[in-house]
């Protein structure tokens, strides 16, 4: 199949997509670009399009990956190529589709975002400079943020906490102030208990006094919820998220902070200090150790940064 015939076949195929499948002009343009790349790769490999083999399509995908093309883009190109070869087979030009069974390289797993230790401590220990530090809302925020970082809770677990255990309606979670422990119900309706640090216990004790003043102002205040909104209702996940984001912005944090960042920071920092992956798994409530192992990558990334910055043989040499 010559280059001219390639173009002719492409034109016929694109025409069928437009007139028979009624695809949009934007989609047709995308298909044309992807097929043009297939043609260029085939020419570089000195092979006609109708003679491209399965292993060569695999090589083409690897070449695209080596050029830095993302997994999603490669998957789209493979889909376009597969469609073309299916059509070519229907026209009697091929006996099999060389793209069948070939998948794009797996997308690299994104590492969770975690704050540096100093940044996490600064975030939860400092009050919003734009607000009254002694207001009930700010005392509530301080207690929530300290507890999120202290125990690695999900925001859904945080807002479900009650003042104390209630057997009459089976509390989803509560804090044992004297024992320094929080019990929560996580994913899969699994309960777990996690230690609570002294700063979080102190912040909670201060909040409890302010909570009483909020409850007294609202006759319909939730009698069980540990964290209350300004209206006396149980704190919602969205409000907790917005409060933390605003708090981080007021303190001049470089990145947007949400509750899961504190959970990731908790896991990363405990792992850095202890190296006990199983303990971190239990405290996070992960059913599989594989889920927790992502934090070992995060910890290694931090160690690699320290190494690159400190080791003499890791530094780039500047020649004069």
Commentary on this structure:
With 320 residues, the protein is mainly alpha-helical. It folds into two domains: 3-90, Orthogonal Bundle (DNA polymerase, domain 1); 117-258, Intergrase catalytic core (hpI Integrase, Chain A, Orthogonal Bundle), CATH 1.10.443.10. It is built from 13 helices and three strands. It has helices spanning 3-19, 25-44, 54-66, 71-90, 117-125, 136-151, 155-159, 198-217, 237-250, 259-274, 277-284, 289-292, 294-310, and strands at residues 174-176, 181-185, 191-195. The protein has a three-stranded antiparallel beta sheet. A hairpin with a 5-residue loop joins strand 2 and strand 3 (191-195). Helix 6 (136-151) crosses helix 10 (259-274). The chain is elongated and about 80 Å long.
Helices and strands in order:
Elements: H1 3-19, H2 25-44, H3 54-66, H4 71-90, H5 117-125, H6 136-151, H7 155-159, E1 174-176, E2 181-185, E3 191-195, H8 198-217, H9 237-250, H10 259-274, H11 277-284, H12 289-292, H13 294-310
Antiparallel strand pairs: 1-2, 2-3
Tell me the number of strands. 3
The top level CATH class name of the largest domain: Mainly Alpha
Question: What is the fold named in CATH at topology level of the largest domain?
Answer: hpI Integrase, Chain A
The arrangement of helices and strands along the chain is: HHHHHHHEEEHHHHHH
* Helix-and-strand structural type: mainly alpha
Task: Outline the biggest β-sheet.
Answer: 3 strands, antiparallel
Provide a count of the helices: 13
Q: Alpha-carbon distance between the termini?
A: 56 Å
The fraction of residues in strands falls at under 5%
Strand order in space, largest sheet? 1-2-3
**Helical residues, percent:** 55-70%
Radius of gyration based on Cα positions: 29 Å
| Overall average pLDDT | 86
Oligomer: single chain
Shape: elongated
CATH architecture of the largest domain: Orthogonal Bundle
């Amino acid at each position: 199949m010559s280059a001219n015939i390639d173009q002719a076949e492409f034109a016929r195929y694109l025409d069928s997509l437009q007139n028979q499948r009624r695809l949009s002009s934007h989609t047709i343009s995308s298909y044309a670009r992807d097929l043009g790349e297939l043609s260029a790769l085939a020419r570089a490999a000195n092979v006609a399009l109708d003679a491209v083999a399965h292993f060569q399509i695999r090589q083409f995908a690897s070449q695209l990956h080596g050029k830095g093309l993302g997994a999603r883009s490669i998957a789209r190109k493979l889909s376009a190529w597969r469609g073309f070869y299916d059509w070519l087979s229907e026209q009697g030009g091929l006996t099999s589709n060389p793209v069948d069974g070939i998948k794009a390289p797996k997308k690299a797993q994104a590492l969770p975002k975690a704050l540096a230790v100093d940044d996490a401590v600064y975030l939860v220990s400092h009050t919003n400079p734009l607000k009254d530090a002694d207001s009930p809302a700010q005392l509530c925020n301080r207690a929530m943020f300290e507890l999120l970082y202290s125990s690695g809770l999900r925001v859904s677990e945080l807002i479900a906490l009650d003042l104390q255990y209630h057997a009459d309606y089976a509390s989803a979670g509560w804090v044992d102030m004297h024992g320094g422990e929080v019990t929560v119900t996580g994913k899969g309706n699994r309960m777990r208990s996690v230690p609570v640090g002294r700063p979080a216990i102190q912040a909670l004790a201060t909040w409890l006094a302010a909570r009483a003043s909020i409850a007294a102002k609202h006759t319909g205040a939730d009698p069980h919820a540990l964290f209350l909104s300004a209206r006396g209702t149980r704190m919602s996940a969205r409000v907790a998220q917005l409060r933390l984001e605003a708090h981080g912005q007021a303190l001049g944090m470089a990145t947007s902070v949400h509750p899961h960042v504190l959970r990731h920071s908790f896991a990363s920092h405990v792992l850095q200090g202890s190296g006990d992956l199983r303990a971190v798994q239990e405290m996070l409530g992960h059913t599989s150790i594989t889920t927790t192992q992502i934090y070992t990558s995060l910890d290694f990334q931090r160690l690699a940064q320290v190494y690159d910055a400190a080791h003499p043989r890791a530094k780039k040499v500047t020649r004069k």
